[in-house]
Amino acid sequence: MKAVICTKYGGPEVLQVQEVEKPRAKECEIIVKVKASSVTTAESMMRQGTPRFARLFLGFSKPKAAITGTGYAGIVESVGNQVTQFKVGDQVFGETGLGFGTNADYICTNETHLILPKPESISYEQAACMCDGALTAQNFLTKVGKLKAGQSILINGAAGSIGSSAVQIARQMGAHITGVCSTGKIDFVKSLGAHHIIDYTAHDFTSDKNKYDVVFDTIGSSSYCDCRKTLKKSGLYISPVLSLGLLFQMMISKLFLSKKADFCATGLRPVKELKPMLQELVQWTEQGIVNQVIDKSYPMNQIAEAHRYIDTGHKKANVVLVHK
Q: Can you give the pLDDT at residue 53?
């Protein structure tokens, strides 16, 4: 089978499509013929090996998991003899997390991992993206930020994969939303449901005179210290982009300050916690409350071009690989 291999840390050129051995299902495992897989900013950072301390988990000189990709959607091709939840021919989608491996013709996953049936009304491309941006956004808004109806939230990177879902989920939760994006994406972020827009090319959102209950920096371009003055007295700064600075700010703010900083690795939450959130996302997507917007789709042999596009910082919402 064909798969995208990351041969070393570096630019998009380190990604190569190679022939590798097709996986086989063990007793409780499922082989999925992949129809679409996600390509994310997080994966671009992993390709580059940044931040450098992440190499403690990813591998020192090159990625331990050679095949890239975490989100996927496809069709069950075969199952182990102890699998009870899925059968051959089922349409499914899910996330492999630190197992990676989804930018390939086939993947092998355990039925107890984060995998769900894919509704007919949701495309393979949309489903493949759902466990990345949308699930991360939901986790940060509902579990980490504990956003409530009537509260105010500023979302930095509101046009991205996490940000575009965060705007829609925050709207569903009844919050007042300020989205931060570039000039060309203002109409897009407004269409998602943001009540107010800050164009970061013209205004520094960290100097905004308005005060927010939550600042959600989906791209990690600011810091807790930058945003403290924009938070209300008991406000919260959250970001999915981990850094040593954020870890320090979390510790200090929780011990001594009324305004807090927080982080959570969504993919490391137990599956029993993630599945109910993902099931709720499926319902919202089927109801048209949260739309998994696809910016661009690429075939597998253009994986380097997909990463180059992500690295420009100009993408809107999601980028996917479409498999034959």
A: 73
Residues with Cβ within 8 Å of 209's Cβ and at least 6 positions away in sequence, in order, are none
β-bridge mates for residue 231, sequence order: 212
CA distances from 264 to 53, 165, 167, 239, 250 (A): 17, 17, 19, 8, 11
Q: Which CATH class is domain 2-122+292-322?
A: alpha beta
Burial 191-229 (b: 16+ CB within 10 A, else e): ebbbeebbebeeeebbebeeebbbbbbbbbbbbbebbbe
The single residue listed with the structure tokens 């109801």 is 287
Q: Examine the pLDDT at 60 and tell me if it is beyond 90.
A: no
Contact criterion met (CB below 8 Å) for 218 and 189:
no
Portion of the chain with pLDDT greater than 90, in percent: 86
- Which among 178, 173, 172, 137 has a CA at the least distance from the CA of 156? 178
- Tens-digit pLDDT profile for residues 218-262: 999 999 999 999 999 999 999 999 888 999 999 999 999 999 999
Q: Which of 104, 22, 106, 14 is nearest to 63 (CA)?
A: 14
Distance of CA 167 to the CA centre of its chain: 14
Count how many Cα atoms sit within 13 Å of the Cα of residue 320 in the half-sphere of its side chain: 27
Q: Measured between alpha carbons, how far is 96 from 70 in angstroms, rounded to an integer?
A: 5
Could you tell me which of 81, 249, 40 has the C-alpha nearest to residue 163? 40
Q: State the CATH architecture for 133-266.
A: 3-Layer(aba) Sandwich (3.40)
Q: What are the residue boundaries of the structural domains of the chain, listed by start?
A: 2-122+292-322, 133-266
Judge whether 2-122+292-322 and 133-266 match in fold.
no
Of the candidates 18, 24, 14, 23, the one whose C-alpha atom is nearest the C-alpha of residue 4 is 18
**All residues at 6 or more sequence positions from 76 whose CB lies less than 8 Å from its CB, including other chains:** 30, 31, 32, 33, 86, 87, 88, 89, 90, 91, 92
